[in-house]
Amino acid sequence: MVEQAPGTVRASRASTVRLMLPTDANFMGNVFGGAVLAEIDRVAYVTASRHAKTNVVTASLDRVDFIAPVHVGELVDFDAELTYVGRSSMEVWVRVRSEALRGSPAKTVVEALVTMVALDRDGRPMAVPPLLLESDEERRRFEEGRRRMEARRRTRHKESH
Ligand SMILES: CC(C)(COP(=O)(O)OP(=O)(O)OC[C@H]1O[C@@H](n2cnc3c(N)ncnc32)[C@H](O)[C@@H]1OP(=O)(O)O)[C@@H](O)C(=O)NCCC(=O)NCCS
């Protein structure tokens, strides 16, 4: 099989900005967790498909920390980058920051880890390019991601027995 050229973390980074609207809110004026999750899934998709250069699917969303509420009228930034790449799976870290537009600084409101899997034309998992790590921080995150991916695999195997 032909070796694929590695991709950097930088090359697949993705960001989106959303103005949170009344249609995103519950009757208290807070944004639904599901509205935030949908955007997390989208931006993680962009990062993973940029790296894989093919279609990807969400395999798991196993870690989402809702640190603070998001309100209607806030501007919300979604930033995604790869932490770890396996054979066909990729772990994407998404950080969500919200800004109230009254001079207060943006604060981190959600952090999430999403696993995406690259698929070939027949819908089967396919190998993705290796990840080229350019800093000690990226190497640290990769190692942490590798351990989490192993833990996910162990849990899945236990659950299926
Ligand atoms: C994700 C999916 C493609 C995996 O298929 P599979 O037949 O289990 O494939 P494999 O066992 O060969 O695993 C492929 C890779 O996915 C990883 N994987 C599989 N299930 C996973 C899960 N639940 N969480 C994280 N990673 C997972 C495996 O570890 C493997 O990684 P690697 O190639 O880097 O070693 C399949 O379960 C699927 O299509 N799920 C539905 C996805 C979807 O529709 N998402 C949107 C929901 S609306």
Task: Describe the fold and architecture.
This protein is an alpha+beta fold and 161 residues long. The protein is built from three helices and seven strands, in the order E-H-E-H-E-E-E-E-E-H. The chain has helices spanning 9-12, 33-52, 136-159; strands at residues 7-8, 14-19, 56-66, 75-85, 89-99, 107-118, 131-132. It has a five-stranded antiparallel β-sheet with strand order 2-4-5-6-3. The protein has a two-stranded parallel ribbon with strand order 1-7. Strand 4 (75-85) and strand 5 form a beta hairpin. Coenzyme A is lined by residues 57-60, 86-89, 115, 117, 125, 152-153, 156.
Widest sheet, order of strands: 2-4-5-6-3
Structural class call reads alpha+beta
Can you summarize the main beta sheet? 5 strands, antiparallel
User: Which ligands, by name, code or SMILES, are bound?
Assistant: coenzyme A
Tally of separate helices: 3
Oligomer: single chain
Helix content: 25-40%
The run of helices and strands is EHEHEEEEEH
Strand content: 25-35%
Q: What is the number of strand segments?
A: 7
Termini separation comes to 33 Å
As residue ranges, the low-confidence spans are: none
Task: Report mean pLDDT, rounded to a whole number.
Answer: 94
- Gyration radius (Cα, Å) is 17 Å
Query: What global shape is seen?
Result: globular
